[in-house]
Amino acid sequence: MRYYLIFSLIFILIFLIIFVIFLLPEKEIRIEVGQKFSDKNLLASSFSFLPSQQNFCSPQIEFLEEDDKKFCFKKPKLKEKRGIEVDLTNKKVLLYDEGKLIKILPLLYQAPEGQWFQSPTGYLRVGIKKEKHLSSLFPVIMPYSIQIYEDFFMHGIPYYPDGRRVNSDFTGGCLRFEDEIAKEIYQFAKPGDQVIVYKTFDDLEIKSEFHPPVDYKNYWIRQRFNNPFRKTRKYSGTENLKFDYYQHAGVDLAPNPETENLSVYAIFDGKVVKIQLNDGKDHGLGNTIIIEHQINNEKIYSLYAHLSSIENNIKEGETVKKGEIIGKVGNSGYGCQNYWKVGPDGCDNNLAPDIHLHFELKKAPVLENPFGGKACQRQDGEPNFCYGYTPDYPQKYGYLDPINFLFEKSNKNISTNLNR
Question: Which residues of 3-40 are buried (b: 16+ CB within 10 A; e: fewer)?
């Protein structure tokens, strides 16, 4: 009788286990960012449904908008555990500490694109901080001011010495926030913190007649066309300040941290007219390809620079098809395969590589500026051709804006109030 009871209990136990595993209906498990679980097994099994959805948000983060939760599942572009990301497309500022996203704050205004003083993009650093900073260009005070690049700052809403706030559509290239938001960023930022200012392709689609030069859905705009670059300091604090700055003649496209596709594509049918190898005579462009296209009855030349490699079948004089792979994204330049870095550039330092495609559209098959001759200056002050940058608007020197030429606005619901 005792053995019969034991076997009966074992049979019931086995039946219950089979029922739980195979017969109970499946239930969808949803996880909210920051949600806490007392059952560790439930937490582990829940995240197993989302193997690729690593959460980069701090459990203590608070969201001002529901849509902001999407940033939790995007790997930081920062190369350091602490720093600030500014997404100009989504108009958000992301504060990271110890590798975790701790704050998502709204950007109020930015400078208009297409101007020499447009808000700078790229890898930057926090410089000086002042609670009340008197502008060197205009008679206004910028509250909670944080220098991010040369004459460009993040700050609250400027006001005149008599206390009157500046009109909302007035900006000289800085990033502006509501005062309380600016104060939060000011209190977080430390001199030397890494800052990345960038745009995304969230509001753009490739025009049907073209192929993107990279897998753009998995890339970000690291440096824009017209982006300001400080060349000299002859005119600081004067109305001629613009002459201290050169402007970016192309666009730099960088892969997202998790991106595996580093292929570079021909944007349109054409003929390879120039291949410049990374041989020390490349003027910093590294491995470079120039393709001639006939577009709207006009010859346009696309330039692809800093390549890590060029496909074996790509030869000068050969034709290529729209969408054909021509090389791989890299950071080559000045004869060095790994020259461009996040920080001081050079072949011999161990800083993080600045992997990106420098892409240009121009009106002649040359590495330098198509028009204008020796419009730039070498370090010793002697006239020189321009490579990658021009001393005035690039259009004056035979360049076209790659983003405007290849892309169009999508129908996604992203605010367009970007240029006030």
Answer: eeeeeeeeeeeeeeeeeeeeeeeeeeeeeebeeeeeee
